[in-house]
Amino acid sequence: MSEITLILNAVEQGDSKAAAKLLPLVYGELRRLAAWLLANEKPGQTLQATALVHEAYLRLVSKEDPGWQGRRHFFGAAAEAMRRILVENARRKKRLKHGGQWERVDVEALDIASPMPDDDLLALDEALDGLAEVDPRAAELVKLCYFVGLTQEQAAKELNISISTVERTWAFARAWLFREIQKGQNPPA
């Protein structure tokens, strides 16, 4: 067992001091994950990778019984916490009180294609929640590949499934999400 797994087990059993030992061990991986997630956000993002890691970590360890079942489950929970923080941030920015009707434009970056707009991120979040109801493993695969930035091979290893299963599940998940997002953008008349 890795040191991280041992500490996660100690945290699960109620050892409050074990949580303090966990952050230094996982900080680098969480920071890399946060930087990757923020790189996919549109320009002008005010949230920094360090702040995202700290906020996600606080959410993870503040629960009475986090119930982590090992390293994979912890990092899955971390990815989910970061996704929720980014979605909350996108919703906050869209509020009229925060200038939600205005779009910030950087004159020097006009030729650069921006990553995912807030509307698309919110639509993806809703569709991903629906996918989790239909096929939880497909939803977890999307989170690992899209939000965490894992390759299909890495996701196969994390999910303990074959690469061909990952490829089939990925194709299904992408098609399902595309259809759901299109439905949301073009409601029936």
Structure description:
There is one protein chain. The radius of gyration is 18 Å and the shape is globular. The protein has helices at 3-12, 16-39, 49-61, 71-94, 118-134, 136-148, 152-159, 163-185. By secondary structure, it is mostly helical. The protein folds into 2 domains: 1-111, Rna Polymerase Sigma Factor, Chain: A, CATH 1.10.1740; 116-189, Winged helix-like DNA-binding domain superfamily/Winged helix DNA-binding domain (Arc Repressor Mutant, subunit A, Orthogonal Bundle).
Rg result: 18 Å
Order of helices and strands: HHHHHHHH
Q: Roughly what is the average pLDDT, rounded to an integer?
A: 78
Total number of β-strand segments?
0
Could you list the spans in which at least 5 consecutive residues all have pLDDT below 50? Answer: 110-114
Instruction: Enumerate how many helices there are, as a single number.
Output: 8
Shape: globular
Percent helix, as a range, is 55-70%
CATH topology of the largest domain: Rna Polymerase Sigma Factor, Chain: A
**Structural class by SSE content:** mainly alpha
* Total number of distinct structural domains: 2
CATH architecture of the largest domain: Orthogonal Bundle
- Termini separation: 56 Å
CATH class assignment of the largest domain: Mainly Alpha
- How much of the sequence is in beta strands? under 5%
Largest sheet: none
